[in-house]
């Protein structure tokens, strides 16, 4: 069977900026449909996915929709009052706030050019970042996620030291998120997660010493993401987008499931620093099998592109334990305690979100190629216009006439046009074309300028200017060029008419006007390319860089 | 079950129609339709046709399910020895293993079923190292799928078990292969576990089984002793709710052997009921008839829905292809008309060409005039083609079906658009050829005249070109021509030259248009396959109702 298993999230949202063959066919099967249809981010799986699509007609698919639960956000204007509660929002990679500002500025500059869908994800990141920054930075919200039966609730209870969440045989057991907060003041955070009051708990009272280390922790037990129960996955997806860190609970049976890796861990590989992966239920594995499975799990994570936090390097924490017997639990508590006390999870998470958003937007802004007009393109443009208006030929004609009749040369229209043409090639270029025009009477004529030549010149200069720009921006440049060239043939007509007709000082003034306008128009077409992509872009490193421009 | 040869013929014809389906345009839904096609072919080739042709062939029970559900352990335990490797790393089974009685081996050794899988088979008697089993599988290569065929006397005659790869692990190849194998089954044995029985992915498969009305049994495996009753009851409830309440269920407790401990085989008692059920299906004629008949007629019935779906996708392809080529034709038609209008209004005689014409013969030479005219015409045509292409690009961008086409960046070899330089080059060549023919024409005309009165042939050619291209701006060109070679000759030349010009314009515009259409035409999307699919289906339906 052909099962198309691609994840669609990385696919170029538009048709690429050009590029490619007459027909591109997918895979080795020559007549298979080219992949790329159905870009809805659904997790696709051949025969099985066909069923998935059928099943999704049942009410359980509100997936990928907007979050219903973040109504408690408060106002999220871009310049919201960030200052109030923020204490520690620094991360190793660079300060978060300027990066968010850059991203916001980028989106602001792009709204007119890019469709909403392209910008939606980045906009959501900004909104969520603003919402999170307005809330407590003393707390770290950690969600426990995983497949049904992997032992999420058991682990949650074990950390809390109390039977808070139901565990059981029924699959799936947990149907809605439950929170446990070690410290007061998390109400705003839990409002944002839309967790109702009755599902907000405290850990066991009079907790041990170890519990002191967990001060500031807000733990969320999630439903599963892989059962057929309607709505569970939607809740998981909603909450995962809002928490500061995630503990993925896997078990020996399900640790290699495609649903976990393809749908979650791969897309979240950039969030490694705020990710824990724990292999639960090791008590069910005989002998040294636990080590083997743990190694295999590390290998899979590595293939997912997730950095592993080994040897002091930043990355995901991977450990094995048994929530039931308690084996490995002290280690998890310790790691988690340190993590919570650092209080950097929220900023790291947001930073990873910005990275992901920037990476996704990158192809929309940057293509391989250096946009801009070289001297060559400008000269070609002027030459083409000269041909269009007939000035190139005039030069030669004038020369010949001059040879025949040197004395009267200065008076011929040809020479004047020729001089104008020459003047455009020197410093000041088109600025001076009007000055070179001189009076000479003759009847006016319609459409002296070759329209097709002007059209061609404009097209060529626009192509040159937009070469190497991503689709929408190249389109913008072409549109600008066409708009800028509107009226150009008429202006050139008048120019040429005046050149051959000539007149008194009045005509010269008129001509000067025409010249200025022509120049302005020509320039406009050329210049507007600069208005293409905004010059600033957000880089993963958090610094700003400016577009190299050749002006 | 008795099957008339006409039914098999109708099915074979249908199968060939399905195999001929091509969906080259990336329309929404095309991927799914392609999967439908592949799945249909698998079911026809691997199951329905072989089953109808050889009703007496052994029953094939495919053991499918999630990774780690214990499929391999189950098959090993049913057979009574380790034929398929089991292990703690997920997924373990990558090469499917088929086990049958030695007497049945010939049924599976050839290409009767699953012809696309390379057979790996060790002749009986050759020593086998159970831990090396997977290496054997690996020998089949990663790309090419293999099927290991094993024989065991402990299996009853007339029954074959197939240990399929998982349906939900990260290994894509496994999922693909599993779906294909399940399509080949007489009996679907779906294995799940205490922690998996509510997973979404296996449920898609169960629903599929229901949709095709396949003979289905479920095995709830690896259930911890203490909770057997509870979990089993819950699973039963889920099945009932899904309309699968009558599906036979077998429950197997979790034992140390499930995780690879001990001998790796479950005690016979644990699998005895399932084994007995399967044996009964294979050996009791009535039960066998029922199992086989149910799956086969289920697949046959499902064709009534799935084929029209496929035909719909084929029709959508054709409609999209017609739309895409319509855009090209319309754009070029419009531009060709514009070129004609502009020629009449004398647009070619503008700019440099106009200057040359005005300076002729005093300030510009005949050659210069001709050059300027030709270049101006080239520019006009290049503009027309570029404008048409722009229009096509813009309209096509809104068509998902055009996703496969990549405009001018490439396609030189394929007869496609080619890069802009190519397009411009082709136009320049065509126009220059026209100029040469025009010059030859002038040459012939001049040679007819008396030697001393004859004007220079190039002058005639230049005047002719000016008259043809200048519209009303060059009325005098015609007069001058008449002065030099006479009115008759001038008119004759004009007519001939005009015809040549029209031919040149058509050649350029049609030639470029056809190049834009070429990649589409190459896909050869036609309306017939849809009708043929439906026709083949109705033949089949008639054959089915006949006694
Ligand atoms: N042997 C063993 N069993 C465990 C372990 N952790 C959890 N379990 C058992 O696994 C079953 C499921 O545990 P839960 O905590 O309810 O699983 P969950 O991930 O919350 O499941 P859902 O709520 O359905 O998503 C329970 O019967 C637990 O007792 C473990 O470490 N070892
Ligand atoms: Mg739970």
Automatic annotation (TrEMBL), chain A:
<dbReference type="GO" id="GO:0019843">
    <property type="term" value="F:rRNA binding"/>
</dbReference>
<feature type="compositionally biased region" description="Acidic residues">
    <location>
        <begin position="57"/>
        <end position="70"/>
    </location>
</feature>
<dbReference type="InterPro" id="IPR027417">
    <property type="entry name" value="P-loop_NTPase"/>
</dbReference>
<feature type="compositionally biased region" description="Basic and acidic residues">
    <location>
        <begin position="37"/>
        <end position="48"/>
    </location>
</feature>
<protein>
    <recommendedName>
        <fullName>G domain-containing protein</fullName>
    </recommendedName>
</protein>
<feature type="compositionally biased region" description="Basic residues">
    <location>
        <begin position="525"/>
        <end position="551"/>
    </location>
</feature>
<feature type="domain" description="G">
    <location>
        <begin position="142"/>
        <end position="262"/>
    </location>
</feature>
<dbReference type="InterPro" id="IPR005662">
    <property type="entry name" value="GTPase_Era-like"/>
</dbReference>
<feature type="region of interest" description="Disordered">
    <location>
        <begin position="507"/>
        <end position="551"/>
    </location>
</feature>
<dbReference type="GO" id="GO:0005829">
    <property type="term" value="C:cytosol"/>
</dbReference>
<dbReference type="GO" id="GO:0000028">
    <property type="term" value="P:ribosomal small subunit assembly"/>
</dbReference>
<dbReference type="Pfam" id="PF01926">
    <property type="entry name" value="MMR_HSR1"/>
</dbReference>
<feature type="compositionally biased region" description="Low complexity">
    <location>
        <begin position="507"/>
        <end position="517"/>
    </location>
</feature>
<dbReference type="InterPro" id="IPR006073">
    <property type="entry name" value="GTP-bd"/>
</dbReference>
<dbReference type="GO" id="GO:0005525">
    <property type="term" value="F:GTP binding"/>
</dbReference>
<feature type="region of interest" description="Disordered">
    <location>
        <begin position="1"/>
        <end position="82"/>
    </location>
</feature>
<dbReference type="GO" id="GO:0043024">
    <property type="term" value="F:ribosomal small subunit binding"/>
</dbReference>
UniProtKB/TrEMBL annotation, chain B:
<dbReference type="GO" id="GO:0005524">
    <property type="term" value="F:ATP binding"/>
</dbReference>
<dbReference type="InterPro" id="IPR005662">
    <property type="entry name" value="GTPase_Era-like"/>
</dbReference>
<keyword id="KW-0547">Nucleotide-binding</keyword>
<dbReference type="Pfam" id="PF00350">
    <property type="entry name" value="Dynamin_N"/>
</dbReference>
<keyword id="KW-0067">ATP-binding</keyword>
<dbReference type="GO" id="GO:0043024">
    <property type="term" value="F:ribosomal small subunit binding"/>
</dbReference>
<dbReference type="InterPro" id="IPR045063">
    <property type="entry name" value="Dynamin_N"/>
</dbReference>
<dbReference type="GO" id="GO:0005525">
    <property type="term" value="F:GTP binding"/>
</dbReference>
<dbReference type="GO" id="GO:0019843">
    <property type="term" value="F:rRNA binding"/>
</dbReference>
<protein>
    <submittedName>
        <fullName>ATP-binding protein</fullName>
    </submittedName>
</protein>
<dbReference type="InterPro" id="IPR027417">
    <property type="entry name" value="P-loop_NTPase"/>
</dbReference>
<dbReference type="GO" id="GO:0005829">
    <property type="term" value="C:cytosol"/>
</dbReference>
<feature type="domain" description="Dynamin N-terminal">
    <location>
        <begin position="62"/>
        <end position="198"/>
    </location>
</feature>
<dbReference type="GO" id="GO:0000028">
    <property type="term" value="P:ribosomal small subunit assembly"/>
</dbReference>
């Amino acid at each position: 069977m052909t099962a198309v298993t691609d994840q669609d999230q990385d696919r170029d949202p538009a048709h690429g900026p050009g590029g490619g063959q007459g027909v591109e066919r997918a895979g080795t099967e020559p007549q298979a449909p080219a992949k790329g249809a159905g870009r809805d981010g659904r997790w696709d799986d051949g025969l099985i996915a066909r069923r998935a699509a059928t099943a999704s007609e049942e009410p359980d698919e509100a997936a990928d929709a907007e979050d219903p639960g973040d109504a408690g956000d408060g106002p999220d204007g871009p310049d919201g009052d960030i200052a109030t509660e923020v204490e520690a929002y620094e991360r190793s990679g660079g300060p978060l706030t300027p990066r968010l500002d850059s991203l916001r500025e980028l989106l602001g500059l792009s709204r007119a050019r890019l469709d909403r869908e392209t910008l939606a994800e980045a906009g959501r990141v900004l909104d969520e970042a603003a919402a999170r920054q307005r809330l407590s930075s003393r707390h770290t919200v950690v969600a426990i996620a995983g497949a049904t039966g992997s032992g999420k609730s058991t682990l949650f209870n074990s950390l809390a030291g109390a039977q808070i969440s139901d565990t059981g045989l029924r699959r799936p057991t947990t149907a809605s998120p439950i929170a446990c907060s070690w410290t007061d003041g998390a109400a705003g955070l839990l409002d944002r997660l839309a967790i109702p009051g009755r599902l907000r708990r405290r850990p066991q009272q009079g907790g041990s010493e170890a519990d002191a280390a967990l001060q500031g922790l807000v733990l969320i037990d999630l439903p599963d993401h892989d059962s057929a129960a309607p709505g569970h996955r939607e809740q998981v997806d909603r909450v995962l987008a809002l928490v500061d860190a995630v503990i993925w609970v896997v078990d020996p049976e399900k640790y290699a499931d495609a649903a976990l890796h393809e749908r979650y861990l791969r897309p979240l590989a950039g969030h490694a620093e705020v990710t824990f992966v724990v292999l639960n239920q090791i008590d069910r594995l005989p002998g040294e099998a636990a080590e083997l499975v743990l190694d295999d799990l590390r290998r899979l994570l590595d293939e997912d592109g997730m950095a592993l936090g080994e040897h002091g390097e930043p990355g995901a924490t991977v450990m094995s334990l048994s929530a039931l017997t308690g084996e490995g639990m002290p280690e998890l508590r310790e790691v988690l305690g340190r993590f919570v006390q650092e209080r950097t999870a929220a900023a790291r998470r947001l930073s990873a979100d910005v990275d992901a958003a920037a990476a996704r937007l990158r192809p929309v802004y940057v293509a391989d190629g250096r946009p801009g007009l070289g001297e060559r393109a400008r000269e070609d443009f002027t030459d083409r216009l000269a041909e269009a208006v007939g000035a190139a030929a005039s030069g030669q004609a004038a020369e010949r006439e001059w040879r025949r009749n040197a004395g009267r040369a200065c008076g011929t229209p040809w020479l004047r046009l020729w001089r104008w043409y020459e003047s455009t090639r020197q410093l000041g270029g088109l600025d001076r074309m009007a000055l070179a025009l001189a009076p000479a009477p003759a009847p006016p004529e319609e459409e002296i300028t070759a329209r097709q030549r002007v059209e061609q010149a404009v097209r060529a200069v626009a192509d040159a200017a937009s070469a190497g720009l991503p689709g929408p921006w190249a389109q913008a440049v072409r549109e600008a060029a066409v708009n800028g060239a509107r009226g150009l043939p008429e202006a050139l007509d008048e120019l040429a008419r005046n050149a051959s007709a000539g007149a008194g000082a009045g005509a010269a003034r008129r001509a000067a006007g025409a010249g200025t306008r022509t120049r302005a128009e020509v320039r406009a077409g050329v210049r507007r390319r600069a208005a293409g992509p905004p010059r600033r872009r957000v880089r993963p490193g958090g610094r700003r860089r400016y577009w190299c421009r050749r002006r | 079950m008795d099957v008339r040869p006409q039914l098999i013929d109708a099915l074979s014809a249908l199968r060939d129609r399905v195999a001929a389906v091509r969906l080259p345009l990336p329309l929404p839904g095309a991927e799914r339709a392609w999967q439908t096609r592949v799945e249909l072919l698998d079911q026809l080739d691997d199951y329905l046709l072989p089953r109808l042709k050889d009703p007496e062939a052994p029953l094939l029970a495919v053991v499918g399910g999630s990774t780690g559900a214990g499929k391999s352990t189950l098959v090993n335990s049913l057979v009574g020895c380790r034929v398929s490797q089991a292990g703690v790393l997920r997924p373990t089974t990558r090469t499917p293993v088929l086990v049958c009685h030695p007497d049945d081996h010939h049924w599976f050794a050839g290409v009767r079923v699953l012809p696309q899988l390379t057979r790996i088979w060790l002749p009986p008697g050759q020593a086998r190292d159970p831990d090396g089993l997977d290496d054997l599988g690996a020998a089949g290569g990663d790309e090419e799928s293999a099927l290991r065929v094993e024989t065991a006397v402990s299996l009853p005659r007339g029954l074959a078990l197939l240990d399929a790869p998982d349906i939900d692990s990260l290994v894509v190849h496994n999922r693909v292969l599993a779906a294909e194998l399940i399509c080949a089954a007489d009996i679907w044995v779906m294995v799940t576990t205490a922690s998996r029985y509510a997973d979404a992915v296996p449920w898609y498969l169960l629903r599929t089984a229901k949709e095709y009305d396949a003979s289905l049994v479920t095995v709830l495996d690896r259930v911890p002793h203490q909770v057997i009753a509870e979990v089993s009851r819950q699973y039963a409830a889920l099945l009932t709710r899904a309309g699968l309440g009558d599906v036979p269920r077998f429950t197997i407790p979790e034992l140390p052997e499930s995780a690879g401990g001990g001998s790796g085989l479950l005690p016979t008692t644990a699998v005895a009921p399932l084994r007995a059920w399967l044996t009964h299906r294979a050996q009791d004629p009535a039960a066998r008839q029922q199992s086989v008949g149910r799956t086969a007629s289920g697949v046959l019935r499902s064709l009534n829905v799935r084929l029209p779906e496929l035909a719909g996708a084929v029709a959508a392809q054709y409609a999209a292809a017609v739309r895409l080529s319509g855009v090209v034709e319309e754009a070029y038609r419009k531009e060709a008309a514009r070129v004609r209008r502009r020629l009449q209004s004398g647009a070619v005689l503008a700019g440099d060409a106009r200057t040359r014409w005005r300076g002729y013969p005093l300030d510009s030479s005949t050659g210069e005039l001709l050059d300027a005219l030709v270049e101006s015409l080239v520019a006009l045509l290049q503009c027309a083609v570029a404008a048409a292409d722009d229009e096509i690009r813009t309209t096509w961008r809104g068509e998902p079906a055009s996703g496969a086409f990549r405009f001018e960046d490439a396609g030189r070899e394929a007869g496609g658009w080619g890069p802009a330089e190519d397009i411009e080059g082709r136009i320049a060549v065509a126009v220059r050829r026209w100029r040469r023919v025009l010059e030859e024409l002038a040459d012939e005309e001049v040679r007819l005249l008396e030697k001393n009165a004859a004007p220079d042939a190039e002058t005639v050619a230049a005047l002719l070109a000016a008259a043809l291209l200048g519209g009303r701006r060059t009325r005098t060109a015609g007069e001058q021509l008449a002065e030099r070679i006479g009115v008759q000759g001038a008119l004759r030349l004009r007519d001939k030259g005009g015809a040549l010009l029209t031919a040149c314009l058509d050649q350029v515009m049609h030639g470029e248009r056809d190049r834009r259409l070429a990649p589409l035409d190459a896909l050869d999307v036609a309306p017939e396959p849809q009708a043929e699919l439906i026709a083949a289906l109705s033949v089949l339906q008639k054959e089915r109702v006949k006694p």
